[in-house]
Amino acid sequence: MKTILVTGFDPFGGDTVNPAWEAVRTLAEHKHADYRIVARLLPTVFDKSIRLLKQYMEEIDPDVILCVGQAGGRATFSVERIAVNVNDARIPDNEGKQPIDTPVVEDGPTGYWTTLPIKAIISRLKEKGIPASISHTAGTFVCNHVFYGLMHEIAVAKPGVKGGFIHIPYLPEQAAQHPGQPSMALDTIVNGLVVTIETALATSADLVEVGGNIS
Length: 215
Fold this sequence. Notes:
Elements lengths: L1 E8 L9 H9 L7 E8 L5 H13 L3 E7 L6 E4 L1 E3 L2 E2 L11 E3 L8 E3 L4 H10 L4 E4 L6 H16 L4 E7 L3 H4 L10 H17 L13
Helix pairs in contact: 1-6, 2-4, 3-6
């Protein structure tokens, strides 16, 4: 049976809830004959989040790893394409650290591509009626930090593992506190994660179709 590690973050930036963790822990209740899901919480903290992620990877030895984070202001289920080797925090993390223009991994490559079949995932999500898009930036806060740390660990120690990062919108109750911002229902997010996992497991070669943008 395949094992899927899915992580979410604790609340940050003044919010009292993080949709990533709410979705991930709900997802862990999903049962399937061909795979099992293990959910783990990551702190919205530089460095500590990567250390914990590496620990989870060693303990669980997953076949697929999805890290999930909140992207307030986005309207779609966003599958990230690339992680970049930079920390440039606009706000402090949950322990007050605010690294600016520092590398995630000293002497690491500039970036890493996801190893998820992102275009197949987006295609399947849209077939299921879930608003979805490929994203070409995971930001420069803890989400990108963890994404880069994940892909670096896969490149160095876990070749063959499929891994990547998903950004999700606010939940409706959060959007109510952020007037004008889009949201997505928790059930829709969880269904999107199930589609992502099952497409990643079933796809050996990604689709070749338009997934970019002009600006």
